[in-house]
Structures are given as C-alpha cells and as structure tokens.
Amino acid sequence: MSSATGGDRGLESSLEASINSTCSYGSTRARIFKIIVIGDSNVGKTCLTYRFCTSYFPERTEATIGVDFRERCVEIDGERIKIQLWDTAGQERFRKSMVQHYYRNVHAVVFVYDITNMASFQSLPAWIEECKRHLLTNDVPRILVGNKCDLKDSIQVPTDLAQKFADLHSMPMFETSAKNTNDHVEAIFMTLAHKLKSHKPLVLSQPPENTVELNSGAKTSFPCGC
Amino acid sequence: MSLRTEPGRHGSEFRRRRKLCDIQRALAKDPPDVATLRRMAISEGGLLTDEIRCLVWPRLLNVSTEELPPPPGPELRVNNKDYEQVLLDVRRSLRRFPPGMPLKEREDLQEQLIDIILQVLARNPQLHYYQGYHDIVVTFLLVVGGPLATLLVDKLSTHHLRDFMDPSMDNTKHILNYLMPIIELVNPGLHDFMVRAEVGTIFALSWLITWFGHVLSDFRHVVRLYDFFLACHPLMPIYFAAVIVLHRESEVMECECDMASVHHLLSQIPQDLPYETLISKAGDLFVQFPPSELSREAALQHQAERTAVSTFKDFELASTQQRPDMVLRRRFRDSVRPENRNKAVLTKPRTNRLVKLAVMGLTVALGAAALAVVKSALEWAPKFELQIFP
C-alpha cells in the first residue's frame, strides 16, 4: 500500500543513520550529553529534535508513543560531544508509568510549549513538577522553548508572559520554529551543550562567538521575526 | 516472487487456491468452522485478501455482522473529554493511509476514524484512550470499513486491548515485563547483554499497543500480523516482539552496551523482516513457553508492583478476567497456591505433547500453536473463551 511512505521512513532512517555515523571518531570516545524533551502533545517535540539532529523539518510526524531517541555529534571548543535527545510522548498516561526510566542520568531538560496553544503553556507547572519528582538534583539545567513562532497569526502566549514564567523558574526562555531554517533551533541546543560542557550556570556561559551567534542568558528570548 | 522458478510459483499458487477453498468451506459451515479459520489466519500468508478479512475477522472475534451500528450524530463530539487528543493524533496519522489517496477521500476516512474511536469510548466508559489506539483502529477502518470496524474494535477493546485502556499504563508495563523472560529462555547471552545495557522495554511499547501498526510502513505486513494476532491469544504480540529482538541478535550484540544505542537500534524496526518465518517462530515459542511458564519469572521480578495492581483489581468487575494481564496474574496466583500445584502437574503432559508437535515442522508447529492458543485460552479464562472462541 505504501511505497511512498516506506520511502519516507527510509529517508528519515538514512538521515538519522548518516548523522549517527559522524559520531564514530575512531578510537576517541565522545562525551555524551543526555537531554530529555518534554511537554504537551502536539507542541512539536519531535519536530524540534528532528530539526536539530537532521537539519530538516519533517513534514509528517506522528504521535510519539513512549520515547523516541535521536542523537547528533557536535564539536565544541575542539571537543567532540554526542548530544542525545530523548523525545517523549506528550499524553499524560505515558509519562506516569512509562517515562521514568528515561529520566535517569539526564544532563538537561528542555520544556516545550506551543505559542499558539495557551493550554500547552498552562501545563508547564505540571511538567516542571513531574521533572522535580524524577530528578534527584536541582542543578540539572533546564530551558523553556516556545515552538511554532512561524504561525504569527495564531499566537496565544505572549512573549512577556512566557518570559516572566521562565524568570520565575530561573530558566532561559527561547521562542523558535522548528519549521523555519533561521529560527535558532541549532543555537538553542548548542547553547545548552555549551552550558553542559562548561559546567557553569547557563546565565554565565559565554559561548565562543565563532560557534554560536548568540548570548545566552536568563533573559534571552530569541527574536524570531514574529 | 519473481525469482522463484516456475514450479515453485505454481506450487504457491496451488497452495493459495487450496487455502481459499478451505476458508470458503469453513465459512459456509453452520456454525462456521472457527478453528479452521483460526489456523488459516495463522498459517503462511494469513487470510490472503481484504475481502476474506471482512468475512473472517468478525468470526475470529465472534462478532455478529447482522446489525451494524448507525453512524453517530454530531453530539458525539460535543463536550467529549477525548475528542481533542483523538483529533490531534488522527490528524497526524497521514502515513496510515495509502499514498496517492485523494485528499477528500482521506479526510473522510479520518473523520470516520475519529467517530469510531469516540463511539467505542462512549459505549465503554471504563476504557481510556491512548496514543496508538488510533493506529489499531485505522487498520480495521481501511480493511472492513466504518460500521463493521466499530463493532470489531469494540470487541477488541474490551478483550485483547483491555489492559492498554486502563486509567494507568501499569498493566501495559506488566505485560512488557514478559519480554525479557522470553528472550532469556531462548538466548541467555542476548538477554544478559540487554540487561547490562539497561535498555528497558519501552522500545517495544508501540509495537505492543498498536500491534505493530505504528511502526510498519507496508500495510500488507500490518494486516498479515493482524490476521495472526486476531487468531491467537492476546499475549501473542509480546512473543512476536521477542522474536524480532531475537532475530536481530547479531546487530544488538554489535551495539555499544548502553541504553541509548540498544534502544535506538531496536526501536528502528527493519521494514524487510521475514514475517512468515517470524510468525511461525512466535507460534513455536508460545507453545514451548506458554505465558503460564513465564508468569512466575516475571512475577518474582516485579512482585511489589503486581501486589498494588492486584489490590486495585479486586474492585473490578468480572470482565477483568478477560484481560491478558489478568490471565497472567491469575496464573501466578494459582501457581503459588499449594492446592493448585497438582493441577499444574496434571496439565503438564498436554504441554509436552504440544511441544513435541511444535518441533515436528513448520506446518505442524503452526497447527499446534493454533491448538495451544485455543486450549490455553479455555484453560486460563473460561469467560474469555465463551465470548471470543465460539
């Protein structure tokens, strides 16, 4: 029935495979940063992780069931780093009994909401609470990402509201679009990787100018042309 | 196919025609010969065409097709607690529809898909929607059409899928706990490697709760598996999951021994799996290591979580006895009660006979699997038998 869909899958797998293959750097073992991506159903967690790991926007994604995994190798200050993104299901029933296993040894958390869906923003306290329950330490870096800012006409969550919320929880906040190529998805994850590499609080990190063109800081919110 | 020699092709064509005749004959009997239909659904090629599936699937589920439900009115979607989530998932399920299908036709089917899901949920308020349920329902919709799909999915949801539709996914997790013991029995080395990698079992979650509908691109493979699962015990999907992992042993063992690598490898299911071989292997495994033999193993590992579940379960109605997880739990309880030890011994010879049958060859093994499934279901859950196996 579906040679075309089969082709699609093939494309996605081969893209993931090609990304993965860049992770084999001979004998040197890359350091691994494990990042979990959480948030309501349909906020774009899968698209964001795809965009970062494969540099393209998947036109057709489906509901994530359980946990999906993507990774990409990057080089930061001459060190090779493997960034593992764990893309989780949004439906509440999955996170209650299924997802705990994947919180183990997590280095950072990315909370995602959809700027065109107020309910997804209002769910954030529950996601933060859930994250606290699973993570033993409080110093795991967390960032807040408002996705879909290409949909300018449907914005429901004003930037300043999100920024206030992020400040309250001491997280950097970014607005972006996994769909637009110039909307900093790369920079967001790279900022996080820099932060993890430097082991300093994100507010203080100054990524080298030649790698990521942005200054990370608690007040950061990317202008995305909205 | 094209590589096969002429006699081979004729041979397979001959087998196909004979199978068609056998199915027609079994359907024409009064009452229909469900045991034969079950064997046909399991054995090579399954039920062959969607036309046959329309006739046989209702028999396998013991659903009467005389009165089809009327299409629901618009009030179904009003103030419906599941509507939003179902809508999100169905809108994103484009891959499940044949490529090249006209947009209008696909959109109509998606609307029907939403209606079927909401109708079944409305008729069974004890059931809870889960992401992935739509992958199962769409398969029935595409094969048998809306009205009949509603009836079949209704029956399936209160039986085979019942545990996945609890308020929580604890029972689903419990069923996943049977994966590793099956792998251990067949290939202890692979099992140990996976334990050391701490890979867990979530890579198989979508396989189990969508009957592989979520992960296989080729619809023909999906419906072939549905033939198999509809004819078998509700726990067969977890045996099939184990068989896939076992089939990929060398790939797994070449992985780095860590959770991410192994999870990543296993969750990317190859699209060119030898389905018929794997189906017959899963049938053999089921005969050789029936759930009753595994339940103790899995139970000992997860006693704490099971106790909590059992306590909760005591409040539930008799219908719970039809659930796959309930079946396992009962077997566990039975097996630890001293007065039931003798019973277990008494049933042993039958099991041995089936195991012997199973090693005699592919065809025999599949026949034996079908037999074991029917008999085991009867033994484990009489109510299940009455409703599902006429």
UniProtKB/TrEMBL annotation, chain A:
Could you list this entry's UniProt keywords, alphabetically sorted: GTP-binding, Hydrolase, Lipoprotein, Membrane, Methylation, Nucleotide-binding, Prenylation
Question: EC number(s) in its UniProt entry?
Answer: 3.6.5.2
Annotated localization: Endomembrane system
Q: Which GO terms describe its molecular function?
A: G protein activity; GTP binding
Keyword hit for 4Fe-4S: no
Classification via SMART domains:
RAB, RAN, RAS, RHO
One Pfam family, short name please? Ras
Q: One GO term of the cellular component aspect?
A: Golgi apparatus
Which PROSITE patterns does the record cross-reference, listed alphabetically? ARF, RAB, RAS, RHO
EC top class named in words? hydrolase
Keyword Lipid biosynthesis found: no
- Cofactor dependence: Mg(2+)
Family named by the database record:
Belongs to the small GTPase superfamily. Rab family.
Q: What is this protein called?
A: small monomeric GTPase
From TrEMBL, chain B:
Keyword field: GTPase activation, Membrane, Transmembrane, Transmembrane helix
Predominantly, its location class is membrane
Query: What does the record say about its membrane topology?
Result: Multi-pass membrane protein
Highest taxon above the source species: Eukaryota
Localisation per UniProt entry: Membrane
Q: Which InterPro entries does the UniProt record give?
A: Rab-GAP-TBC_dom (IPR000195), Rab-GAP_TBC_sf (IPR035969), TBC20/Gyp8-like (IPR045913)
List the signal peptide residues.
none
Q: Name one GO biological process term.
A: Golgi organization
* One GO cellular component, as annotated: endoplasmic reticulum membrane
State a single Pfam family of this protein.
Answer: RabGAP-TBC
Where in the numbering of this chain does the Rab-GAP TBC domain appear? 47-233
Q: Which residues cross the membrane?
A: 133-153, 199-216, 354-374
Q: Which GO terms describe its molecular function?
A: GTPase activator activity
Query: What is the name of the protein in this document?
Result: TBC1 domain family member 20
Species:
Engystomops pustulosus (Tungara frog)
